[in-house]
Amino acid sequence: MKKYLIAAGALLSLTTPALAHHPLGGLPMDTFAHGLLSGIGHPMLGFDHLFFIALIGIAALYTGYRWIAPGAYIAAMLFGTLAMSLGLALPAAEIVIGLSLLVLGGVVLSGRALSIGPAVVLFTLFGLFHGSAFGGLIAAQEAGVGGGVLVGYLVGLGASQYLIALAAGWILGTGLKAVDASAVQVRLAGAVVAGVGVFLSLENAEALIFAAMGWAV
After folding, report:
1. Counting CB atoms within 10 angstroms of each CB, which of 25, 178, 180, 190 has the fewest?
2. What pLDDT, in 10s, does the model give residues 166-206?
3. Full DSSP string of 147-207
4. What is the distance between the alpha carbons of residues 93 and 99, in angstroms, rounded to a whole number?
């Protein structure tokens, strides 16, 4: 149990807002290959990014759609990233991300699989708003120096995130032998994720209240 509590504390520490990471360290971006390398490296430059995509892989495994659900998430995430880089922002992205974490964590905690329709909708919604949330910070840099760079970035980002999601599911399901959705390790992971979702949702609600009152946060 001690190791699970340590893991829970580590995950909760990852809830700070993501910073704009850049895999090439600000070097000039000129080619498809530059964008590809940037996209591949992006999820690995911050624990927050790794946490989100690992969650997708774990939740996908225990909702019964190990391959389909991460694909739905990543396709929607890439669309949201592209839309944001072109100036098409989705409203309340941070709020939806917090609520999505709460729902996904609750699903894993329940120990029950979803039917295909609700699963795809849930993972797609999460991906769309997550893509929008960081698309303006990262993809816009690549878009500003050429379409080829942006395409390379999106390809690299999608490929690396899909592999990370599959690896996360494999590690928990095979490496840690937590193959049953009702296993205590799985339910504890779901509880931690739901807790992170509650924390983010409360934080976002607080920010909205302060903004409405004209207070700085």
Report:
1. 25
2. 998 888 777 666 656 666 777 777 888 788 888 888 887 88
3. HHHHHHHHHHHHHHHHHHHHHHHHIIIIIS---STTSHHHHHHHHHHHHHHHHHHHHHHHH
4. 10
pLDDT of residue 8: 35
This prediction's pTM: 0.76
Q: Whole-angstrom Cα distance, residue 37 to residue 24?
A: 8
Q: Are 63 and 103 in contact (CB under 8 A)?
A: no
The answer on pLDDT for 15 being more than 60 is no
Whether the Cβ atoms of residue 66 and residue 166 lie closer than 8 Å to each other: yes
Look up the domain containing 163 and give its range: 30-212
Structure tokens at 61: 């495994």
C-beta of residue 145 within 8 angstroms of C-beta of residue 35: no
The verdict on residue 4 lying in a domain is no
Q: How far apart are CA 131 and CA 144, in angstroms?
A: 18
Does residue 2 lie in a domain region?
no
On whether residue 183 sits in a domain, the answer given is: yes
Q: How far apart are CA 44 and CA 171, in angstroms?
A: 17
Residue 134 within a domain: yes
Number of folded domains that form the chain: 1
